[in-house]
Amino acid sequence: MSHDDFPTDRPAVVTCGLPYANGDLHIGHLRTYVGGDVYSRALERLGQETAFVSGSDMHGTPVAVNAEQEGVSPEAFALDWHERYAETFPKFNVEFDNYGHTHDETNTEITRELVRDLDEAGHLYEKEIMVAYDPVDDQYLPDRYVEGTCPYCGAHARGDECDEGCQRHLEPGEVEDPESTITGNPAEYRERTHKFFAVSEFADYLSDFLDRLEGTSNASNQPREWIEQGLQDWCITRDMDWGVDYPGENPEDLVLYVWVDAPIEYISSTKQYSERVGADAFDWEAAWKEGVSDEHPEGGEIVHVIGRDIIQHHTIFWPAMLEATDHAEPRAVMASGFVTLDGKGFSTSRDRAVWADEYLDEGFHPDPLRYYLATNGGFQQDVDFSWEKFAERVNTELVGTVGNFLYRSLLFARRNYEDGPDADAPSDEVAARIDEAVDEFAAAVNDYSVRALGDAVTDLARYGNEYIQRNEPWKLVDEEPEEAERVIDDCVALAKAIAVLFEPLAPEKSERLWDQLGEPGSVHDATVEAAREGPAGDLREPTELFEQVEDERVDALNEKLEARVAESESDDAVEDGDESDDEEESETDGTDDAADADMADIEPISDDRIGFDDFQDLDVRVGRIEDAEGIEGADDLLRLTVDLGAETRTIVAGLKQLHDVDDLPGTKVVVVANLEKAELFGVESNGMVLAAGDEADLLTTYGDAEPGTKVK
């Protein structure tokens, strides 16, 4: 691994978090896989040697439970879903170099070998622990068969993760008030011998690793809290019979925890790719193992693209395993935010989702969805999908900006110059603008920003529209034919640059554009240097690349979704007598029905963003209310005297009807201190007290921050 700008002379591996072989894919899942594919293709455009790999996560309790319900073996159940995923991803132009699964022979062998290496190096030990047991059903319960209360935050939790609260990984025996998810019986804890990985020994290493880690900031910041709280050793075995058997002596017939063999699939899938294409084309050992390459003993450039719900596994457990077994550490982790639907959480059991197959069945091309998912907000931010927003982005940016420039330019060139204008190279102005776009593209790769990759293209197309409008070649054809030819040659050169730079986001449309330009070979093999070269000058008859999404189409899609959700919720009410939903989601799903209920009435998050510098301009402080009294003539307003540490301010706030005025003194609040002063009902207000929602839930502090402490 290096920290040099891409491209480097080391082999790179881009991975995506493994989809759990347990259910259909929707567009919330696709965000991560599209993001990984976009990033991998962008690296290749820069000339980086890259392997893009993933695989299906086959093991774990949900697979075993659902297979039993369907009356098939866990292997048959998981393989069926694996094959569906392997067919679905290419339909969205997500092209893995290798897509394996965790139950195949390669991953089983590498997993057992790596665990043996951990054991021989002294990093594993046995420990008696309390494991949940169902005394009525007479069976031990693996973590996903257990639900209860998180011991850290008090939220409802699964046996292995506080999925509805603090998101912390939980070890067997930690969940309080355990219940069996199979029978609903109260569970009890009994002693069992299990294998542990001494993760706590790697605390210093992991702290330094996070300092080096590139990618999205949430991936490096979130794990620091766990390290500061003190790392707990990791139980790596489970009481069940579906998984990779623990290697060596195994009197309890334990299998390895799913999160042991799942990330190892990244290595296994890369090995399978190398075995298929040959080590000369891609050397998996040089990428993954330390000391294999004399030139680069630290290994290659490993980039993990994941959902943010599995950050801990990829920044604590996985790098500790790699470090302990002399493998290359990840260079970067890109953790995506979740996808909501019209401001509400996806609900798979209520059919409240836009399914991957459904999107295609509606006749939409995959590339507009790829563009939407990749560019609608920063990668680590949550994205809200609606058919209205999708249509707006397609119509405004893909049709109105990119498509409009390409079609009008190429059509004019084809009709006036047949095979294309004869100028050798673009003008200095256009060549400089293309160079700028290539630099923006490279910067986006090194900033791990798939959104900025799209911006580089749309900004270039926007410049192209302005350029052709400013020069008006249709007026120059007769009066200044040489100048007209130069302008159109510039436009064709811009179109070629767009084809190259847009390939990661819209690979199929970019290949079609490449063909219209008459360029030799495939755009998928072109690097950014081709964007700087003049066009080949053998134009084909152009067609419009993107199709407008009409308002009537959006209305029809919304009606279908609403009818489907209503029917599903009606079925739930008939079957269950209420609208509860206890379906278990996959480890990498990032959506659940608890989120759906919580977010039912929440206004969608704005797509308008502010810069960090703008946020820094806000002076937000902790304050303490010293006195509160009503204002004559104002039904809702209170005059608050607020201690801000350095001074005491008078602030007017609309809290009178929502809070007991006598209870307010002594309350800590959060105040925007540098807001312009305002006069309300004759009282000068010098700041703003922050509160949430229509009930004016006052923002306060969890700890003992003193008045005047700055919020940042």
Automatic annotation (TrEMBL):
One Pfam match: Anticodon_3
The segments labelled Disordered in the record are 562-598
Q: Which InterPro entries match?
A: aa-tRNA-synth_I_CS, Anticodon_Met, Met-tRNA-synth_bsu_C, Met-tRNA_ligase_1, Met-tRNA_synth, Methionyl/Leucyl_tRNA_Synth, MetRS_core, MetRS_Zn
Matches recorded under CDD domains: Anticodon_Ia_Met, MetRS_core, tRNA_bind_EcMetRS_like
Q: Residue ranges under compositional bias (Acidic residues)?
A: 568-598
Which coenzymes or cofactors are required?
Zn(2+)
Chain positions recorded as ATP binding sites? T348
The residues the record assigns to binding Zn(2+) are C150, C153, C162, C166
User: What keywords are annotated for this sequence in UniProt?
Assistant: Aminoacyl-tRNA synthetase, ATP-binding, Cytoplasm, Ligase, Metal-binding, Nucleotide-binding, Protein biosynthesis, RNA-binding, tRNA-binding, Zinc
GO terms for MF: ATP binding; metal ion binding; methionine-tRNA ligase activity; tRNA binding
Presence of keyword Nucleotidyltransferase: no
Q: Which SUPFAM superfamilies match?
A: Anticodon-binding domain of a subclass of class I aminoacyl-tRNA synthetases (SSF47323), Methionyl-tRNA synthetase (MetRS), Zn-domain (SSF57770), Nucleic acid-binding proteins (SSF50249), Nucleotidylyl transferase (SSF52374)
- Look up the EC number in the record and give it: 6.1.1.10
**Subcellular location, record wording:** Cytoplasm
Cofactor: record remark: Binds 1 zinc ion per subunit.
Q: Which domain of life is it from?
A: Archaea
* Chain ranges of the TRNA-binding domain: 614-712
The short sequence motif called 'HIGH' region sits at 19-29
Under the subunit heading, UniProt states: Homodimer.
Per the entry, what this protein does is: Is required not only for elongation of protein synthesis but also for the initiation of all mRNA translation through initiator tRNA(fMet) aminoacylation.
Q: Which family, according to UniProt?
A: Belongs to the class-I aminoacyl-tRNA synthetase family. MetG type 1 subfamily.
Name this protein carries in UniProt: Methionine--tRNA ligase
